[in-house]
């Protein structure tokens, strides 16, 4: 689905800026895919390693790496979904249980965990934004590799008991459940925001 990535640059290597029209074309048409349309195959182990390598090449003030990944695949992902479903049904909340369909369908889920580091001069807000950049880059890289991907959160991203099942530590939060697979159908373009209503030009 994609050519091999170039070797990872070494610390201190020059990285000259060059125009990348193909990247601009990709961004101009980028569209997430519906989670329930995602099926096998998922990225191979080598491809997943490449995707995670790209996901960590994001702005990171202080070089703190304030994020980590939890991989959910195969029978382990099925057991995770079963535990969430049991949690929802124990609360007599079938609607919450039904929302797990998005998680169950794709063969791979990468949970991007915001893990801000305490006792540092870098504001927590900037560390949280870095986790968002990490999730965004993972989404874009997955789509550019030719796979389908959908960034979701839903109730189990915020529920303390669900977070405990996932293994989150104190101070951590789910930035994204990135659902990944091969899309059975092409996504349709959706309505986009009115840029003119969102842009102002500062003047004193």
What this model shows, in words?
The protein is built from seven helices and five strands; from the N terminus they run αβαβαααβαβαβ. The chain has 204 residues and is α+β, with helices and mostly antiparallel strands. Helix 2 runs antiparallel to helix 6 (124-144) and helix 3 packs antiparallel against helix 7. The longest helix is centred in the middle third of the chain and has 21 residues, at 124-144. The model has no long low-confidence stretch (mean pLDDT 96).
CATH fold assignment: NADH Oxidase
Strand-and-helix sequence, N→C?
HEHEHHHEHEHE
CATH-defined superfamily = NADH Oxidase
Number of helices: 7
**Number of strand segments:** 5
Major pleated sheet: 5 strands, antiparallel
Low-confidence stretches: none
Structural class: alpha+beta
Strand content: 15-25%
Helix content: 25-40%
Kindly report the average pLDDT value: 96
Assign the CATH architecture. Answer: 3-Layer(aba) Sandwich
Summarize the structure.
The chain is of the alpha+beta class. It has 7 helices and 5 strands.
List the helices and strands and how they pair.
Elements: H1 21-29, E1 38-39, H2 45-55, E2 67-73, H3 74-90, H4 94-98, H5 101-104, E3 108-114, H6 124-144, E4 148-152, H7 160-166, E5 173-183
Helix pairs in contact: 2-6, 3-7
